[in-house]
Amino acid sequence: MQQSEALCPKFEFAFSILSRKWTGLIIQTLLPGPKRFREIADMIPNMSDRMLSERLKELEGEGIVMRTVYPDIPVRIEYALTEKGKSLESVMREVQKWAQQWVDC
Amino acid sequence: MQQSEALCPKFEFAFSILSRKWTGLIIQTLLPGPKRFREIADMIPNMSDRMLSERLKELEGEGIVMRTVYPDIPVRIEYALTEKGKSLESVMREVQKWAQQWVDC
Fold first, then answer.
1. At what angle do helices B89-102 and B23-30 cross, to 10 degrees?
2. CA-angle at A26, arms to A23 and A29, nearest 5°
3. Which of A58, A75, A84, B30 has its CB surrounded by the most CB atoms within 10 Å?
4. DSSP label at B32?
5. Which residues belong to any copy of the HTH hxlR-type domain (chains A, B) (predicted)?
6. Does B40 contact A at CB distance below 8 Å?
7. Each residue's pLDDT tens digit, B13-41
8. How far is B75 from B45, CA to CA, in rounded Å?
9. How many C-alpha atoms does B40 have within 13 Å on its Cβ side?
């Protein structure tokens, strides 16, 4: 194998983030704008709240999602994509285009 | 939640294919052209042969990879992307662009 043909480790890492179950869908729900926990959960009915909570923490840790607490009464917590997260939009768009063309319902 | 905001099930299915460990990397190794089992394995050193064999069978079942047996002596078996598989190139490209910009080595 030639060195130039070796796979970039960054590519593998990016896939390891995006490959976790629900992560792609969670990011997609946040692309139009910040959302509260319940709004995200309602858009992905098959995912448990516990799983959503876990995934949001991971995405926060990776700098893809940002959690903001607003001091309203009752307190309001919103999840939003960071710049790193927003720049996943073109990845999402290409996955969606591919799915539309090739995946039968 | 408004109906129009619901997530397309095709999108979820596409992610369920692409989210399996190694699948993205295997597809990437096949983008430049058909390869033999050993060539793919050598390009992804951390993946076991058993895993590669399993993933290739799955990808064949999904119509993403095509297996061709050439009646040479000894027999030659090549794996290639189908049209459906090749059209994943733009997805791969966007993932790679994102990783280059945002993932530290």
1. 110
2. 150
3. B30
4. T
5. 8-105
6. no
7. 777 777 778 888 899 899 999 999 999 99
8. 24
9. 31
pLDDT digit string, tens, across residues A14-23: 777 777 788 8
**Hunting for tokens 């995946």 — which residue is that?**
A103
DSSP 3-state of B74: coil
The pLDDT, as a whole number, for residue A3 is 36
Answer whether B95 touches A (CB < 8 Å): yes
Which residues sit opposite B65 in a β-bridge?
B81
User: What is the pLDDT, as a whole number, of residue B79?
Assistant: 98
Helix runs in B2-67, H state only:
9-18, 23-30, 37-43, 49-61
**Domains of chain A (ranges, CATH numbers):** 9-102 (1.10.10.10)
Residue with tokens 């990016």: A14
Question: Which residues lie across from B100 on neighbouring strands?
Answer: none
Q: For the residues A6-20, what does the mean pLDDT come to?
A: 69
- What does each C-alpha distance from B80 to B13, B34, B74 come to in angstroms? 22, 4, 19
Q: How crowded is residue A7: how many other Cβ atoms within 10 Å of its Cβ?
A: 15
Given a contact cutoff of 8 angstroms between Cβ atoms, the answer to whether A87 and A52 are in contact is no
R_g (Cα) of chain A, nearest Å: 16
Instruction: State the Cα–Cα distance between residues B9 and A34, nearest whole angstrom.
Output: 22
- State both tokens at B88: 């994943």
What distance in Å separates the CA atoms of residue B79 and residue B67, rounded to the nearest whole number? 5
- Chain B closest CA to A45's CA: distance in Å? 10
